[in-house]
Amino acid sequence: MVFAASRIYRRRLLANTSQSGLAGVSGWQGRLAAACQAGMMVTELPRLWLGAAVRVRWHDRAALDAVFVQAASNNKGIIFLTPHLGSWEVAGQAIASACNAHEKVMTVMYKPAKQASLDAIVKASRQRPGMETVPADVSGVRQTLRVLKSGGAIGLLPDQVPMEGMGVWSSVFGKPAYTMTLAAKLAQSNSCPVVMVWCERLSFGCGYRVFTRTLVLGLDGTLDEVVRQINVAVEGVITELPMQYLWGYARYKAPKQNQSGLGQVGA
Predict the structure, then answer these.
(1) pLDDT at residue 140 in the model
(2) Residue 249, SS3?
(3) Of 24, 82, 153, 188, which one is least surrounded by beta carbons within 10 A?
(4) Which portions of the chain are predicted below pLDDT 50?
(5) pLDDT at 129
(6) Which of 30, 6, 29 is nearest to 238 (CA)?
(7) Dihedrals φ, ψ of 238, to 5°?
(8) In CATH, what number is assigned to the domain containing residue 86?
């Protein structure tokens, strides 16, 4: 319905799918399927926000458990990166549950919604065992740094356009996109595992399957090089599940002016 009614949304989705060059979303059938997946994302949110955590199918839970064990033995934290792919709300809940099982808490930065009633619902939905939120401001960034350096876990959205001064322009599917530097800075300064997490929405309401992949990054490179490596990793997982990416997101937009001082906080 939104695809048909909103010219802005339709143009953005068509432009982003064309830019990707991916066969799965290059034709009209794939593009409409991608729009339908976005509709599914919206309609499932009330259940995910207001209900108990849903059960998921893990593609390889043993591999994730091994990451927790190794990080603990090396006294390292873990960086979880969850792109706008499939149901990232379920992915966050699943990783929080895994953290809780390993006696860890995943800290995520949270930007309050403009509507107070909606903000209360979203904030409550993310106060679950194994997950805590911190404000998306200078204090939140500093708290995130402390969590990681103390061996805790943090969660970030690697494909969310950051505010001005908090990112660099880096290629995404062959086009410059303003990309956060925080994940790359934290990985370089802490030498900790970086794990990509995404959640496939299964057909016919059959639930969700969660995937994890520990990234192999060349952390000795420049900041721009590490940022580009993370973008390549995001491109890779989108390629595996192209119709469930949020193609209507304005990934190539210019960043908003930063008035919070976030960009001045180092890693």
Answers:
(1) 83
(2) coil
(3) 188
(4) 264-265
(5) 81
(6) 30
(7) -65, -40
(8) 3.40.1130.10
